[in-house]
Backbone:
């Protein structure tokens, strides 16, 4: 048996502050497929979790991100880089955090064709004995000042939610690289699949 | 650079109301949710203004490594190929002395440049 489509959020040109999905105990493996994302400003798609005992999406998250990019207008601007501020650290967040982890690269809205897509896996969000692990693989297509300065940006985030309580929901927002919510999601196609 | 209060005013002018989506169902934020969201965004933007000013103007920062190496800011180190190109031209201009032009690295790069020439 393959993945089952649980829920889908899809909208075009509707300023949306938060996009939430309920997580239940029906599925051990959760797969989010992001087909398209555009925020109101130059921001990334961020995510956070909630449990039954919490009032907000504020779980301590430990995660690290790495990205590589290729400016395609010449051969000189490409690298794989690590940037500390993309990480979330549960030791800094203490018992709760309003910082959002990063699903993928930011989308520069100055160019109409910039976009991002990708996937995120989340293992046993309902488990009550261990922390919940997640991985993202995502891409962004953008151009810089001019259309011919196009580049492909690939980002990978790996981490865990430092909470042994069952996660009951996940929230997606437009986020800075530092994990702060800002602005709206204006275009989104995001589906949640489950595997029993 | 705008203050948090100025950002709040601008955000409220831009968004008279806000909506959210939960399990595919859209609804309008309550007054308290709206105020809290605008406050969050304004806090973020005021902090970003300070951060961006530091990136542009420079100065002491615990994030100095990130500011130096950020490939996207336009204010940090150039890419490695660009840095090597700068080094090549410094050697070519004699800034490292004439002996530097006899090195294998300079000779190899120059040989490629001489083989594939830039149109005038």
Residues:
């Amino acid at each position: 048996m393959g993945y089952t489509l649980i829920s889908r959020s899809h909208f075009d040109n509707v300023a949306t502050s938060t996009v939430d999905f309920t997580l239940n105990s029906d599925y051990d493996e959760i797969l989010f497929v992001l087909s398209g994302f555009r925020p109101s400003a130059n921001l990334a798609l961020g995510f956070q979790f909630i449990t039954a005992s919490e009032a907000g999406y504020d779980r301590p998250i430990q995660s690290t991100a790495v990205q590589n990019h290729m400016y395609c207008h010449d051969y000189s601007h490409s690298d794989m880089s690590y940037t500390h501020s993309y990480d979330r650290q549960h030791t800094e967040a203490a018992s709760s955090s309003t910082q959002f982890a990063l699903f993928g690269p930011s989308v520069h809205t100055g160019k109409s064709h910039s976009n991002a897509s990708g996937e995120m896996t989340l293992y046993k969000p309902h488990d009550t004995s261990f922390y919940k692990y997640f991985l993202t693989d995502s891409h962004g297509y953008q151009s810089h000042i001019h259309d011919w300065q196009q580049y492909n940006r690939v980002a990978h985030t790996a981490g865990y939610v430092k909470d042994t309580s069952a996660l009951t929901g996940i929230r997606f927002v437009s986020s800075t690289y530092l994990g702060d919510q800002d602005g709206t999601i204006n275009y989104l196609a995001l589906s949640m699949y489950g595997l029993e | 650079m705008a203050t948090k209060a100025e950002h709040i005013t601008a955000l409220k002018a831009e968004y008279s109301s806000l909506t959210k989506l939960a399990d595919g169902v859209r609804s309008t934020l309550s007054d308290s949710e709206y105020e809290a969201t605008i406050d969050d965004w304004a806090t973020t933007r005021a902090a970003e203004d300070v951060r961006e000013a530091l990136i542009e103007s420079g100065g002491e920062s615990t994030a100095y490594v990130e500011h130096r190496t950020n490939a996207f800011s336009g204010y940090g180190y150039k890419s490695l190929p660009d840095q090597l190109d700068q080094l090549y031209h410094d050697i070519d201009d004699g800034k490292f002395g004439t002996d530097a032009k006899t090195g294998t690295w300079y000779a190899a790069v120059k040989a490629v440049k001489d083989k594939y020439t830039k149109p005038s």
